[in-house]
């Protein structure tokens, strides 16, 4: 994509100003000047985000929800489009902090990379990582095209039956005795948006129940918190999905 990109390596001593930016006094002009941080980019990679303290992680909350940051009470818009991608280490690793629920809720999807297949690993070893090939990659889409696609996704039709299906799934999750924190309204909005995007990519102008089935777990798994940490969230979500009548 022909977009600006920034990467932040999160560490335990990082401060919010390292992400957002800071006002510095210019002795020549006798005025404060804002020096933007790496968050001012179209694509932001927050690498090992859970190595930073919750205070620093929370610096992304306003940006991910509002598309802006506030510095000294002054709102500053971020470039459009704006995406945050993050990686995190398992919580069992030393020097990691759990992500606040409010921040987890702002990530649309959560996926696990896992290990590559044996064939791919052998290919990677033979190619030595193939970092040089990245230098030759050319953009296949421009910023204006992405913005037009986002506008088109918003126009995808969602029937009342689909809205009712999603609401029923959320209600069952919230009432489930195994669930400590259920999905928020933001989670439902993001699920609908993801279903619209999937429909658009498959060249449809309407959302189907199959879209909800495919995206329900990836959208909800990191948002729903269970009372018993030994129970797999994915299994609970799958059970709720299977026991909820699917609209025709």
Strand content: 15-25%
User: What is Rg?
Assistant: 21 Å
Alpha plus pi helix count? 11
Structural class: alpha/beta
Question: What's the overall geometry?
Answer: globular
Instruction: Spell out the helices and strands N to C.
Output: EHEEEHHEEEHHHHHEHHEH
Q: Note the gap between the termini.
A: 38 Å
Describe this structure in words.
40% of the residues lie in helices and 16% in strands. The longest helix has 17 residues, at 185-201. By secondary structure, the protein is of the alpha/beta class. Helix 7 crosses helix 9 and helix 9 packs across helix 10. The strands form 4 sheets. A 3-stranded parallel sheet has the order 1-4-7, with no helix packed on it. Strands 2-3 form a two-stranded antiparallel sheet. It has a two-stranded antiparallel sheet with strand order 5-6.
Which descriptors apply to this entry?
248 residues, alpha/beta, 3-stranded parallel β-sheet, two-stranded antiparallel ribbon, 40% helix, 16% strand, globular
Quick recap of the structure?
By secondary structure, this protein is of the alpha/beta class. It is about 40% helix and about 15% strand. A hairpin with a 4-residue loop joins strand 2 and strand 3.
Break the fold down into its secondary structure elements and pairings.
Layout: E1 5-9, H1 17-20, E2 21-26, E3 31-36, E4 43-47, H2 54-57, H3 61-66, E5 68-71, E6 74-77, E7 83-86, H4 101-104, H5 118-127, H6 131-134, H7 143-154, H8 160-175, E8 179-181, H9 185-201, H10 209-220, E9 225-226, H11 233-242
Parallel strand pairs: 1-4, 4-7
Antiparallel strand pairs: 2-3, 5-6, 8-9
Helix pairs in contact: 7-9, 9-10, 10-11
């Amino acid at each position: 994509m022909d977009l600006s990109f920034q990467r932040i390596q999160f560490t335990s001593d990082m401060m919010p100003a390292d992400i957002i930016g800071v006002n510095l006094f210019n002795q020549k002009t006798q005025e404060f000047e804002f020096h933007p941080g790496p968050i001012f980019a179209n694509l932001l990679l927050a690498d090992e985000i859970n190595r930073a303290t919750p205070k620093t992680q929370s610096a992304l909350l306003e940006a991910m929800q509002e598309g802006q940051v506030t510095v000294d009470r002054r709102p500053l818009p971020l470039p459009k489009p704006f995406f945050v991608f993050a990686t995190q280490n398992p919580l069992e690793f030393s020097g990691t902090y759990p992500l606040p629920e409010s921040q987890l809720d702002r990530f649309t999807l959560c996926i696990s990379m896992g290990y590559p297949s044996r064939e791919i690993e052998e290919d990677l070893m033979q190619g030595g990582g193939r970092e040089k090939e990245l230098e030759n990659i050319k953009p296949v889409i421009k910023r204006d095209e992405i913005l037009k696609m986002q506008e088109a996704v918003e126009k995808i039709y969602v029937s009342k039956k689909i809205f009712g299906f999603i609401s029923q799934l959320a209600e069952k999750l919230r009432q489930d005795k195994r669930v400590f924190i259920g999905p928020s309204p933001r989670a439902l909005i993001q699920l609908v948006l993801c279903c619209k995007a999937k429909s658009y990519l498959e060249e449809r102008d309407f959302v189907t129940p199959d879209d909800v089935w495919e995206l329900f777990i990836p959208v909800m798994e990191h948002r729903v918190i269970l009372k018993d940490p030994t129970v797999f969230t994915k299994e609970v979500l799958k059970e709720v999905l299977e026991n909820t009548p699917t609209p025709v």
